[in-house]
Write a structure and sequence with these properties.
3 helices; 7 strands; four-stranded antiparallel β-sheet
């Protein structure tokens, strides 16, 4: 009994969605057909394309088409919201040293209104932070000089200084990661 009601609800929502799609795209398809007919009609006399007509069902009202359009807009809005929300709510910051190299796996503290979040940059020196609730961003890593950027100072690219340990590790890594001589 309950399963029948759920199936009927989903069927009616799907039917309204199809009506909304048809009410949206049928006039557009007819307009495209008229444009093709006009262009081809310049070269061929008497050329005519048929028009698409929506089939009227018994008991179909204008309310079902309007309801379908509303459901279509809501579904497209939800899909757009799921796609756009992370891009709007977060921003990406890249940390680089003064010599231009990125800061991979640097320990960062994101100061937000909810407290401090301890994160690390990725292998390219990038970190994703909340756009609206970040008060400051701090680097707390023994390889880099401790530094704090306030909200107004946070840019897409931030520059940090290396400590003696960080410079030594980088020069050691450059020597050790060279290809072997044959």
């Amino acid at each position: 009994m309950i399963l029948d009601a759920i199936i009927a609800l989903l069927g009616s929502i799907f039917g309204m969605l199809v009506d909304g799609i048809a009410a949206t795209f049928v006039p557009l398809l007819n307009l495209i057909a008229a444009g093709i007919e006009a262009v081809v009609g310049l070269f061929v006399t008497g050329f005519s394309l048929g028009r698409i007509q929506r089939k009227k069902r018994d008991g179909a009202t204008k309310g079902s088409a309007a309801g379908g359009i509303v459901i279509l807009v809501v579904v497209l809005g939800l899909i757009g919201g799921f796609w756009a929300t992370p891009r709007v709510m977060n921003r990406e910051v890249t940390l680089v040293a003064k010599d231009g190299h990125s800061l991979p796996f640097a320990a960062m503290i994101i100061h937000t209104r909810d407290g401090d979040q301890h994160e690390r940059t990725d292998h390219a020196g990038k970190i994703v932070i909340p756009r609206f609730w970040t008060h400051a961003l701090s680097i707390k890593d023994p390889r880099y000089v401790e530094q704090r950027w306030e909200q107004s100072e946070i840019q897409p690219h931030l520059t940090a200084s290396r400590t003696v340990l960080g410079s030594g590790l980088d020069s050691l890594a450059e020597r050790l990661l060279k290809p072997a001589k044959e």
